[in-house]
Amino acid sequence: MFGIDGTVLAFVVLAGFSAGAVAYAFLFTRISNEKQVGKRLETIRTAETDRSVVKASRDRVAEAAKRRKSVQDSLNELDAKQKTKDSRVKKPPLKAQLRQAGLKTTIERFYIYSAICGIVLT
Question: Can you give the residue ranges of every domain in the chain?
C-alpha cells in the first residue's frame, strides 16, 4: 500500500493492542478504584441534595403545621369571644316573652298558672 507490508501493519496493530491490554490489566484495579470513588462521590452529592430536599420538605410541613395551628388558635379565640358575647346577651325579659307569645296576662298570673299546672301534672 504505502510501502508497508500487510503483515508488518497487522503485527504493529496487534502489538499495540496487546500493549494496551497489558496496560489495562495492570491498571485495572486503579481504574476500578477510581470508578468506586466516583460512585461514592456521587452518592455523597445525592445524599446532600436528598438531605436538603428532606429538610425543605420538613420545613414546608412544619410551616403548614404552624399555619394550621395559627388558624386553629384564631378560630378558638373567635369561638371563645362569641361564647362570651352570647353569654352577655340575655334572653328578653319574661314580660316581653309573654307579649311575643300573644298572652295578655300579667307576670303574677303567669306564675300562678304555672304553679297550678305544675302541681296538677305532678
Answer: 92-122
